Amino acid sequence: MSPTLSVVVPVHNEAEFIREGMEGILGALHEVAVDFELIVVENGSVDETAALAADVGRDEPVTVLSLDTADYGAAMREGFVQARGDWVVNFDIDYFSAAFLRQVFAQTDADIVIGSKRDPHSQDRRPFTRRLATRVFNLLLRALFRSRVSDTHGMKAFRREVVERIVPRVESRQDLFDTELVLRAERAGFRIVEVPVVVEELRAARSSLAKRVPRTLAGLWRIRRRLAAEG
């Protein structure tokens, strides 16, 4: 029997944090008391991330997958393809929430539930520069795609139909896999609900905004061209 919930977590070189992060996620999953599977997708690590993840999950419904190349989006895609749940959720190893899961299961008329950092009732406790980057990214989505979604990064939940129909069409990898997934689902008419979240990451950000900005701008332009070509 398929589980109610699949949670997909991409990880890369997380040997120092994987135990703490996985134990926190498993605790959140047990707290909501649903039948679940946790899919940890190690990608391109050169440390003991995969072995440690397998050890933490040995007595839990945990699957550890490994990809040769470090690619967050490719890891998320592989986890989504392998997921069997009625709902498929993506968490980061340092950003997850039982409260978000409860909001997902409270929805009766949604195909996608987004934990939006931009929701007026959210509490975003990240540094100012990271909050500003989220705001600018949202403005770009509105300008380039006329999207009505306020946030495409972070915690999200997708019904199985969305995963099966949309994921095979997503070409972006790295940082923009989930952005293209949400944009395509929005264009396809799936019902999207955004809910407030408390954004309190468990450690300092590991990625550099200076490196991500040029890559993100180029990636958004490629998505725009693809969607325009598809009409």
In short:
The protein is an alpha/beta fold and 231 residues long.
Give a description of the structure:
The protein has 231 residues and is an alpha/beta fold. The chain has one domain (5-230): Spore Coat Polysaccharide Biosynthesis Protein SpsA, Chain A (Alpha-Beta Complex). It is built from eight helices and nine strands. The strands form two sheets. A seven-stranded mixed sheet has the order 3-2-1-4-7-5-8, with helices on both faces. Helix 5 (128-145) runs parallel beside helix 8 (209-230). The chain is globular, with a radius of gyration of 17 Å. The chain starts with a strand and ends with a helix.
Oligomer: single chain
Tally of domains: 1
Under the CATH scheme, which class?
Answer: Alpha Beta
Uncertain spans? none
Overall geometric form: globular
Tell how many strands the DSSP assignment holds.
Answer: 9
Biggest sheet strand order reads: 3-2-1-4-7-5-8
Tell me the Rg in angstroms: 17 Å
Terminal CA distance reads 39 Å
Summarize the helix and strand pattern as letters: EHEHEHEHEEHEHHEEH
- CATH architecture tag: Alpha-Beta Complex
| CATH topology (level 3) name | Spore Coat Polysaccharide Biosynthesis Protein SpsA, Chain A
The fraction of residues assigned to DSSP E strands is 15-25%
CATH superfamily heading: Spore Coat Polysaccharide Biosynthesis Protein SpsA, Chain A
- Give the proportion of residues in helices: 40-55%
Q: What is the mean pLDDT?
A: 92
SSE class = alpha/beta
Largest sheet: 7 strands, mixed
How many H/I helical runs?
8
